[in-house]
Amino acid sequence: MEFTHDAMTKLKELLREPEPEVLQGDDLPFSGYEITSNRDKVPCPSTNDTKGPRTIEEYEEQEAAELDSLAGPGGGAGDRKAPEYTMNYQQSVSAEDVFLQMGPKTPSSASCENLIVRIKLPGDKKENVELTVDTKSVTIQSPQYYLKLALPHDIDPDNSKANWDSVKESLVLTLKLDREFDFVNF
């Protein structure tokens, strides 16, 4: 092999140290701005906090009080409470799916068509309940209760329905799921 000037120059370029991918302190161009930190000026929280619980019972009482003030997911609004609710998936199955296992459906929630939300509103009447449904959440308002509930999947509000169960004083929502790949499971 012949060592020409061009070959030596190319070899030198190959053996050169690679440039750093991330610029470090001195490599950065000067911007004219001074960077400061106030980390040393922030006072540390005191380890001898007298308001903190000293026993397990005090801790549990404090935790229960905090949970009551938050009123759970969806939270209450002002003096209104958050109602109890349940969410269940609903799947339409036939004998072909259950006994013969010939259909494409599985027992998982991926094959479900509807989301059933039951909201208990004791003491309220159907006329006093205001319901707002969009693709990602449900909002229920009444004189006694308030609930803004984020849904686990997008829904189709136009094909969903709501029923009032006067015996149980609850609102039953049948929300049609609208998922991107539903055609795969049906």
Automatic annotation (TrEMBL):
Residues 101-185 form the CS domain. Coiled coil: none annotated. One of its GO terms (molecular function) is dynein intermediate chain binding. Residues 1-53 are annotated as: Disordered. GO terms for biological process: axonemal dynein complex assembly. InterPro entries: CS_dom, DNAAF6, HSP20-like_chaperone, PIH1D1/2/3_CS-like. Residues 1-19 have a biased composition (Basic and acidic residues). Pfam families: PIH1_CS. One of its GO terms (cellular component) is cytoplasm. Belongs to the PIH1 family. This is Uncharacterized protein CXorf41. It comes from Papilio xuthus. The lineage of its organism: Eukaryota, Metazoa, Ecdysozoa, Arthropoda, Hexapoda.
